[in-house]
Amino acid sequence: xxxxxTMRLASYNLQKCVGVDxxxxxxxxxxxxxxxxxxxxxxxxxxxxxxxxxxxxxxDLIETKGFSAIDFGQPKGSLGWHGNAMLVRPSITVTKTYxxxxxxxxxxxxxxxxxxxxxxxxxxxxVHLGLIxxxxxxxxxxxxxxxxxxxxxxxxxxxxxxxxxxxxxLDAVTPAYDFxxxxxxxxxxxxxxxxxxxxxxxxxxxxxxxxxxxxxAPVASDHLPIWLDLAPQVAPAA
Length: 238
Prior knowledge:
Layout: E1 7-13, H1 26-35, E2 40-44, H2 59-64, E3 68-69, E4 85-88, E5 93-102, E6 108-117, E7 120-128, H3 133-148, E8 155-160, H4 168-173, E9 177-179, E10 196-201, E11 204-211, H5 217-220, E12 226-232
Parallel strand pairs: 1-2, 7-8
Antiparallel strand pairs: 1-12, 2-4, 3-4, 5-6, 6-7, 8-10, 9-10, 11-12
């Protein structure tokens, strides 16, 4: 029997590389990212807050650690768009990128990348949704409608969904995707909420998923990073 190929995705809210000790320490954030052993890493709060929003995680540090940051046409000096960014290993090729404007009181956007991977074509959407549930649902609805207009492809939604309770409400507005029951990731020193998560299209499945709790993750950000071992959905036997 052939071995099944899996890929690891991760999502991490960097909090601009400022830890719970209030120190800005990009090298520490990169230690956490490398410890995930992921092929694709979706980041939130990857840029500093004030214009021109320079990268909180320097590009040269990223590149020396075996990743590259996908270009989403961000402003000069910024790593991401609306604070969202995506890192990939050399085995991943970017075929197309999209920026999705999202509704709400505060400026929000999502990033989307079509990738060629050793597992096959894969679309990854990076999100950081709003603090108010009504706007979170509007934002997810907008993402789902935008994805419906694109060519069909195995898809993962990943990021900080800011949803404190069970993700049933999020499932309801994204019927083509299933949210995983991810473990608590916030606040990092003593997690009580699963704000960070993944949702998969029906042609994908999770072999395993979890939260990285190893030092220095509990102090490097107010969020712990989450990871997912992804595999194609097994077709039912004829």
